[in-house]
């Protein structure tokens, strides 16, 4: 997995591989807590049930990325997937904001990192296009 990724052409501004683990650890903690709160709000009927849909889609897209990028080794599909992760974060922030501004604000670090990761993935895809 790492061997294949290490051989890809990457932009000079790509972070070293060791950065991803700590960043995602913090982001998954934020995701776990905030998405858990949203689930609780849905279960207790404090927010409409449709609110959970973009959160679930975000988790699906997020978890698919590793399989697509490192399992299938498909940069193009990984670029599409990371765009879906980005879009779903924006939608989660929009739908939850009227009910909980703090949960929406807690998504900002996730959005910022995925914004960077989206540009990085699209750049890697372009640089390795054959």
Structure write-up:
With 130 residues, the chain is an all-alpha fold. It has one domain (24-127). It has six helices and no strands. The protein has helices at residues 2-7, 20-43, 52-71, 75-96, 101-106, 108-127.
Radius of gyration: 16 Å
> What is the terminal separation in angstroms?
20 Å
Strand content: under 5%
What is the percent of helical residues?
over 70%
Largest sheet: none
Using the alpha-carbon principal axes, give the shape.
elongated
How many domains make up the 3D coordinates?
1
Order of helices and strands: HHHHHH
* Unreliable runs: none
* Overall pLDDT confidence: 96
State the secondary-structure class: mainly alpha
Counting H and I runs of at least 4 residues, what is the number of helices?
Answer: 6
Q: How many strands? A: 0
Oligomer: single chain
List keywords for this structure.
75% helix
Topology, please?
Blueprint: H1 2-7, H2 20-43, H3 52-71, H4 75-96, H5 101-106, H6 108-127
Question: In short, what is this structure?
Answer:
The chain is mainly α and 130 residues long.
């Amino acid at each position: 997995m790492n061997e294949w990724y290490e051989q890809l052409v990457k932009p000079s501004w790509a972070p070293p591989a060791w950065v991803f683990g700590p960043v995602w650890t913090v982001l998954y903690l934020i995701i776990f807590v905030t998405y858990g709160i949203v689930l609780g709000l849905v279960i207790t009927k404090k927010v409409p049930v449709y609110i959970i849909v973009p959160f679930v889609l975000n988790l699906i897209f997020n978890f698919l990325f590793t399989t697509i990028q490192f399992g299938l080794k498909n940069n193009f599909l990984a670029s599409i997937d990371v765009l879906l992760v980005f879009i779903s974060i924006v939608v989660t922030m929009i739908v939850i904001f009227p009910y909980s501004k703090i949960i929406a604000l807690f998504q900002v670090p996730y959005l910022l990192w995925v914004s960077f990761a989206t540009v990085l993935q699209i750049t890697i895809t372009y640089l390795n296009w054959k």
